Amino acid sequence: MSSMIFSTVRGIGSLLKLEASKSPSDETEGDIKVLSVAWNQDWSGFMVGTNRGFDVYNCSPVKKSFSRDAFKTGFKIAEMLFLSNIFALVGNGYNHHEYPRNKVVIWDDLRNSRFCELAFKSEVIAVKMRREHVAVVLNKNVYVYSFNGLKIHCLLETVMNPKGLCCVSQDDTKAVLACPGRHQGQVQVHDLMRPNKVRFIKAHDSDIACMSLTLDGSLLATASTKGTLIRIFNTLDGTLLQEFRRGMERVEIYSVAISSNHKWVAVSSEKGTLHVFRLRPDILSSPKSINNASSVSLLRGILPKYSYDSERSIAQFSLPVSTKFIVGFGPENTVLLVGIDGSFRSCRFDGEGGQMVELENKDFFTLPQTDDQMVVM
């Protein structure tokens, strides 16, 4: 990807120029507002889409790498590819015809130019990237493109997906994509190296609200719109491996993450709670699910019934209820959080359980800018 050539790639059908949504005020005026926050693929950095442009942050230690506001528009989606110069941008559609809500711009910041454009007939809900692929999520479809030549790799059908749920693995030898299936509570798992290989998992009775893959794509975590249970599946055969109980009351799950060492799961919710759960040490070595239900029953879409209490969290932390936080993992039993309120937090937990200790709580907009040169991927 170091030898990038500007190109334009259109989605299925010709580009439909959507009429930009009208805003009562100019989005680029007034105070800076956060429109989106997103971790990169390994939590080494995060990107913030604002009403003026976007900011890029590094987490080792947390600092602002650079800010870009020359676009004179806001970005409702801003995703970065590791700590590189490659970004995926989708405009808010209010005040800039070059960045409407139905177009993904892959931006090469090193060259200060567009690598490519991907345009569609409907609004783009989410974008996910890996080194070889970019996945664009629409309401009922996921378009997967290969970075090599920007050709459509595959087109997936989903149920209505207003949250833009989709996650991709980052292992060079194992390309896994997970997104909602074609029925309520179902997840479809694809091997992108073998496009015809797909597995459908009946994960929940209710709609899927949140999902996450491990970096190597071996484990999948899901939560439903009920928000009471978190389930962990083996992506290879669809087996349910472990189940966690967040609580008894219905709640919206904001974010879920599985640590890269396969030891912990972190979950944030609208209750202002951060929970950390412990994965079994043998979670990938055991071929059985937690209630000995065979993977065959799961593959057929039959959710096994449970006759015992699900496992509880081993550590908790209280967060502002009014703010949406997305979670990631840092080194040495630390959880990283980025809030839509402009805050960055880090907390450490004891592997034996109990309350977490807050290590950092910073307003990321006030961090000094370093103007770091990003790595070319």
TrEMBL record:
Keywords: Repeat, WD repeat. It comes from the Eukaryota. It is found in: Preautophagosomal structure membrane. GO terms for cellular component: phagophore assembly site membrane. The keyword Mitochondrion does not apply. It is a peripheral membrane protein. InterPro entries: PROPPIN (IPR048720), WD40/YVTN_repeat-like_dom_sf (IPR015943), WD40_repeat_dom_sf (IPR036322), WD40_rpt (IPR001680). It holds the Pfam family PROPPIN. Its main location: membrane. Belongs to the WD repeat PROPPIN family. This is Uncharacterized protein. It comes from Eutrema salsugineum (Saltwater cress).
